[in-house]
Amino acid sequence: MMTTGSFLSRLASFLLLVILTLIPFAACANDSAESSSLTTTEELPWVERYRRALEIDPDNAALRYQLGLALLAAGDNAAAIKEMHLAYPSLSQSVGINFNLGLAYTRLREPDSAQLYLEQAEASGALQQREIYPLASALYNVALVYLDNGERDAAIEVLRHVVSLAPERRDLMRLYGEVLFQAGRTAEAQEQLLRYLEIYPDDSRVRETLFALHYNRGLELLEGKQNPAAQKAFFRALEVAPQSPMARYYLAYLAYLQGSSEEVVDYLAEYVATFPEDIQRSSFPLLFNAASRLLTAQQYALASQALAPIVERPEAELKYLSLAGQVALKQNDFVAARDYYRQVLKGDPAHAEALPSLALAEKGLARQRTAEGQAQYRQGKLLEAYQLFVEASKLDPLDPKLVAYLKETKRKLSTAAEQAFDRAVEAETSGDSIRALKLVRQGRELWPDATRGGELEQRLLEGLDLELARQLLEAQSLLAMQEYPRALEAFAMLLEVDPEHEDALRGYEQSRRGIEQQQEQRLAAGAEALENGDLDSAAAAFGLVLQQRPGQSQALDGMQRIEALRTAMIGDELQWARRAFSEGDYSAAREHFLNVLQQLDTPPLRNEYLAFESAVENRLSGLLKAARAARGEHDYRKA
Fold first, then answer.
1. pTM recorded for the entire structure
2. Topology of 1-166 in CATH?
3. Which helix (H) or strand (E) holds 606?
4. Where are the domains of the chain?
């Protein structure tokens, strides 16, 4: 039979679960809004039942507590607190009564009392029953009430405890860091928010908060002329938001003040193109001044890197372009220097520095092209050398050495071209018009300006019409017979003579596609044969593919698989041969040995087979000798 105490205990647990389901763990509404939505206690039968029971047994603490729970569920928080206080002396060590008193005081917006009872609930073992008593959420609501009341320090202390109770709660961790930030406790806020970002790196809101913390601190320190401390703050801001234009700008500015032009380049050069226009306008002078310092320090590569983003803009200032020209001259990049100074003169035709500097750049480029031409000349590349000498002569036409090189190269090219034309005429006379055409074209490549070459080529082409038609017909016949490789070669020969021949171009493309289709068919056939265990057919198919394309990966893989299978099969055959030999089944052993040699005939395998045959022969000789001896003794059965 169930006792009254047991029944009340079970009932209390049931009501507690109901209440926890009904009570939201969030900041409570104001008293007037709350009271307007309450159901009157007279309408709640549980409240009436407990009150009637208490009229009979007014000292029953358990019943008094149950009445408090019922009132709390009904939203009558003050009455609930009154009843629970009457029961409290007997139940003060109970987790439930402390926890629910904390909830009731939170609803009444009395956070001090709420915190006191929730701490007592924790001491009584609420953390061991987290599913029933969500202490972290309850304390979180207390912190919200403190914040609403303007008691930020008290809220911070509660939130610190809340985060330690529920470190997995993302919302609690973030709120704690933000409240610390709002309270001006920046070091603690930074530590908390950085820890948060390590766990949740994609939370842009927190990242922005932390960035603002460091960035604003940096501005304050900069205004107070505490530059080293400001630099640290901006650097921390950049760690949080590596793409921040403002953090990069201020770090570059502070680096410039310290004389570290290299750091200015590091902070700005790669990123300034993505900055908003107003920050770009502020950043360009920093890069320009840093480049000037780097030029003076003979750090030309860094100076060029600093200038690159500001001279690539269509509206680049003339002073930027002029400095870039100076840097390019120091780097012997005469092409770039010439381009920069030309842009300067386009904007200011009378620019005092650009005029002589452009002349220097052009003379430097002329020397450079002359040296390159000399190198080509020594390697026998006369046409390339001539073209470089021509370019150099346009820049510095009065250089006597260059004029001599140009004249000598032109003479050699003209002579070589004439020799090629002479050989072409000889080939034409002997009836080899195609070879003659190739020789003419070789000569024209050597000396494109030779009028004789153009006339010869035109005459040969007119006489080759019949020959080209014959070759085209032959190539098309090969294509029709699906002799794609030979057809491709024939069309290629036609295109050597007439690169624009439409029929030849079309036939060449069809042959190429035919080869690709043929390759695909052979690959498919090889794969199918391999799947069916027909290794010879598979090897033949893959081999044909590799003849056309030696590096074709699918065919190579197929051949490797065939080799692996054959190796395994040879191993099996060899084992069977040896086993049959040991068992005296010489016929089977011979068959297996011959299968092995058919697949792989190597000296070791051949020697093993010969040893087997020798052993068999010796065995047979012994048997014949024994048979003859038995016959001599008239033992015919034994013989």
1. 0.50
2. 1.25.40
3. helix 603-632
4. 1-166, 399-463, 573-639
